[in-house]
Sequence to fold (293 residues):
Amino acid sequence: MPSFGSELKRQLAARTGDPGSLHRRAELAGLTDAAGTRDDSGTTIYTSSAAVARSVLRLLRSEFGLEPRLDRSGPDHFGRARYAVRAEGNRAVQATEELRSERERASREVGHAGVAYFRGAFQGAGSVTHPGYRRGHHLEFVHVDEEFIKRVARLARAPLRVVERRGRWVAYTKSADGVTILLSQMGLHEAVLEYEAWAVLGEAKANANRLTNFDAANAARTAVAAACQQEALQSLDPEGLPKALREMLELRLEHPYVSLAELARLGGLTKSAANHRLRRLLALSSWPPAISK
Fold:
């Protein structure tokens, strides 16, 4: 089953292949910068997504009239199939120069061309965790080229932290808002809704857990207090007590865990009277016990 990030790349690639889509060259420029290598005879773009590979083929044909070659280049470091799209010849070299110009244009503007470049960069070098992932939210771009990563961070509509990690550069966000803003920037609105639904569910679960923990803590404190009070009351001599207090002592010892209201009902008293008698009994037993130093 494809990962959440792979499915989002498939959706972006399908949209790029639409002849009516705008700024397709800017998107191809971002994808080429993210996953391509250039040499004197042409360009090769590597991807583990079959959908992205097919999209690159269509774009090179429709935008530059090229006839690129698609090959399997072996598994990546995750064991996934890897595809290589290779375009060669003078026209391919010229296309590479035109894509460089397109990149510069997209980098200068924060409008549609910049968004298209950002979409292409994500298809080539981006990843995102599934909504509800137990380790939290995470969207990142990883590349060996610091300039590319900083360019992506400038085009992002949510702040991305840029760091160097094991010889590669990373721009990332761990914020739920940051992830949804960037998914929305790329036009992945269904993914945004899925993230927001998980966020609501997560908050509901957190509230339920807080209430459960609060109730459990209260129950534990009540049980401890009841046990300590029982111990204190058992130390009293009923024969030395007035009748009203003796009856309350016997009633409480017989029903150690009932509520004060229930205890008052069993004794035919008001709640206030039951509470007053219990307080007097505990005072006679030196409750609470003194803390030794």
Q: What stands out?
A: Residues 73 and 143 are 19 Å apart (CA to CA). The radius of gyration is 35 Å.
